[in-house]
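Field reference: sequence -> structure
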Amino acid sequence: MNKSEFWFDLPNELIAQTPIDKREQSRLLCLSKTTGSIQHKRFFDLPELLRKGDCLVMNDSRVLPARLLGKRETGGNVELLLLRNLGGATWECMARPGRRMRAGAKLLFGDSELTATITEEMDGGNRLVIFDYEGDFIEILERIGKMPLPPYIRDEPEDAERYQTVYSRPYGSAAAPTAGLHFTEALLNKLEALGINLCYITLHVGQGTFLPVRTDEVEEHKMHSEYFTISEETAERINDARTGGGRIVAVGTTSCRALESCAYESPGPSSNDSSLIAGAKHSKNYVKPYSGYTDIFIYPGHEFRIVDCLITNFHLPESTLIMLVSALAGRENVKKAYEEAIRERYRFYSFGDAMFIA
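Structure field:
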């Protein structure tokens, strides 16, 4: 399978630069994965598209204000992007300008209330960094850090909370799980009142979500790894919904990847059975609780074991995300849906409109 099969031309003016005024007013393209038929609605119409007993699974990870602008102790501007906490005050970071960020360099941020020392240059160009500070690290980041927005968004939104879902809780993501940006508290309450099960998993989105597929052959691409957690309570609620005939609706590709990573034929094995993540073939239908990393790569040919429906935004050409969507809905269906979305002037990418695939 060649990555060029997932290419499409997108006018630059359709890349949304700012969020819509009201989250639930986003447009919603509804795509049937069986017939390829398309309907045009608004996100606030979602309650009429779901059924009592369905289970909506959302990623509650919160975006860390992980972009730090500062100076080297010896002078000169620097920028760090926190990628992954390696324990305590040690982080893996992207660093700019790289040529001046050698091991031993000391960095100052926010009137020196946060300092950092680069201890190692890692394979791939990232840096190992140890921070020094007094007080709470997250509170300091909230004061002096900036949102790590995608490369195609030029300016920060006036309200940083618009790049967070209304149900975000634990900090840890380097990018927002954007399919959830369309929900409001009122919409969630309405769904719950209609008998829709609301479940939350946590997958901390990494910067790898923006990495292009560099191999021509899709199957040769190596997926980045991301940490996720599915609690026992969430797994039980998802399994109960499946047993009762409800559909599992993943909100976003991150929720989808987490669920498909933990598909299992029965609730028997221990929760940290490594075969769950190793991609072992099991029959389907059940989710096991799990905390760990997944590098699952979902592309056409994948047998979905848990996810029945998907809420997602419109994705970049040749990205792993559009490949996942094509795996669920079919390449031709997705191609036609994207052509329709472009004709109808839908807004694309993180601050853009949404799709509902069922």
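Note: Residues 67-144 form a domain with the Thrombin, subunit H fold (CATH 2.40.10.240).
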